[in-house]
Design goal:
Layout lengths: L1 H19 L2 H10 L2 H9 L9 E5 L4 H8 L10 E2 L5 H6 L5 E5 L3 H7 L6 E4 L4 H22 L24 H31 L1 H6 L5 H31 L8 H25 L3 H18 L11 H7 L3 H15 L3 H34 L1
Parallel strand pairs: 1-2, 1-3
Antiparallel strand pairs: 3-4
Helix pairs in contact: 1-10, 2-8, 3-8, 3-10, 8-10, 8-11, 8-12, 8-14, 10-11, 11-12, 11-14, 11-15, 14-15
Length: 374
Amino acid sequence: MKRCFANIFQLGIKELFSLRYDPVMLFLIVYMFSFSVFEEAENATTGVVNAAVAIVDEDHSQLSRRISDALLPPYFQAPALIEVDEIDASMEATQYAFVIDIPPRFQADVQAGRPTVIQLNVDATAMGLAGAGAGYIQRIISQELNVFLKDERNKQAVNIVTRAKFNPNLESKGFQGAMALTNNITMMAILLTGAALIREREHGTIEHLLVMPLRPIEIMLAKVWANGLVVVLAASLSLYGAIQGVLGVVIIGSIPLYLLVTVIYLFSVTSLGIYLATLARSMPQFGLLAMIVFVIMLLLSGAHTPLDSMPVGLQFIMQFVPSTHFVKMAQAVLFRDAGVDVIWPNMLATAFIGAVFFFAALLRFRKTVTLMQT
């Protein structure tokens, strides 16, 4: 047993030295855990920021001007005044995301209590911006109407008070940064372990390992712990340096618990990376396989779209994918300050899926080794 651990440790050190002399992979690690996280968190927003809006003011009243003046930055650009016959052409040319058409005699009808309608045209090709922006504009118009009409009959009988939990300012920067880090952990773990195995096969060093008194499980465990250590260290530096330092995001949860969850998750994805590398015969084939797997894990794990909005059958299938549980744990720990008592079912699920991936990769790796020896 002692010799087994010594072999795993020495092989892991060899993996770290191999990575040290791979400038392309080192650059990719630095980029993915620094500039990539910063760029996505700072610029890839799903909220309403600097949205282009136009107003067709057919009333030219005090109330219509109040509505126009209430559309303020940073949510909206200064409203542009256009004519009715320009609405279709301007929206087809994507000049404006929102066009508000205020009808003639709008203020007079409101003061007289007569029914009146404001038309809001929305470019729904940008779905996130369309949904949130339309809601913002509706609330702005409603607020201006309530302020303008100081009559009790026009006040709402029920006031809706919205309280945002865990992100009271509704800022997307912290969420985007943490999810970018989570996705990059998945990508780099798969790429590092898979590329390490492919690199050894292409350089012929795998044959050198096979003639030594080493077992396939020792070779696999060495690759798992060495490459997993690199990803954990890079993720820690990214969390403290890029997200907390440069971006200024306040993490209310336990970072050590998040890193512990990351270690459990890395056991799964590094094993998956080795399994994909045993299926591929070259680095380009491995890259294509890894891309397909990563895109599925990225889009369907709940990092950017709620899992509850997916079909029930797909939700059930994604419970067998480790990234689904990792995203849940990352969000719970970093954003809601959840403890082990909350996330332990996901921790067990991730560890179980990791064990399945590891033994599947081990069987495939043993088969590959047997074919190489014959």
